[in-house]
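[Discussion] Sanity-checking designs against the backbone

I'm trying to build intuition for which residues belong where. Below is a structure token string of 186 positions. I'd appreciate it if someone posts a full sequence so I can compare it with mine line by line.
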């Protein structure tokens, strides 16, 4: 997490084409953060909180997202990306969701977690793999009854990244209605 600001700064300046005074330091922080992250990787491809113990689904998804983002700015071992993705996919439940290890069986956390993981997978599964499709199907069902903005936005972004605009449209419409309602109440 402490490396993400450097990554975002480098990404911004790469996109703008401008140089900046602290680019060398930001690049060094990015490489150091990547190196440190690898120390939290389990043998099975997942990521752990303390460098030992069982990997965590949410942390592995977050690490995978970082690896994807960092890969545009620094060399990233694609085997690490592949193994983290494979580990996440193995954790997917038959209904297309992922369960958070430290939460009870309430649906809320697993729905939001599934939306986050779907968004991460959509970034690397350009062809909309079966695990991504199952996650989007699960979220499609859940977002029909849940109006939580972060969930709707994550689902819409995942569907958009998967190039499934029709699937994203109802969630985006719900978000627009929520904004319109908030404007009326203001």
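Best answer:
Here's mine. Compare freely.
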């Amino acid at each position: 997490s402490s490396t993400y600001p450097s990554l975002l700064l480098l990404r911004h300046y790469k996109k703008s084409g401008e140089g900046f005074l602290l680019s060398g330091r930001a690049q060094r922080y990015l490489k150091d953060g990547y190196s440190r992250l690898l120390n939290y990787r389990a043998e099975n491809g997942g990521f752990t909180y303390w460098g030992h113990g069982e990997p965590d689904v949410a942390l592995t998804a977050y690490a995978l997202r970082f690896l994807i983002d960092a890969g545009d700015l620094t060399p990233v071992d694609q085997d690490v990306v592949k193994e983290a993705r494979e580990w996440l996919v193995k954790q997917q439940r038959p209904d297309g969701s992922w369960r958070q290890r430290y939460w009870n069986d309430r649906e809320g956390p697993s729905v939001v977690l599934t939306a986050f993981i779907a968004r991460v997978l959509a970034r690397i599964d350009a062809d909309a793999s079966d695990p991504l499709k199952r996650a989007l199907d699960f979220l499609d069902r859940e977002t029909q009854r849940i109006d939580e903005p972060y969930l709707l936005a994550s689902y819409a972004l995942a569907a958009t990244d998967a190039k499934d605009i029709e699937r994203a449209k109802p969630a985006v419409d719900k978000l627009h209605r929520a904004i319109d309602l908030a404007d009326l109440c203001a």
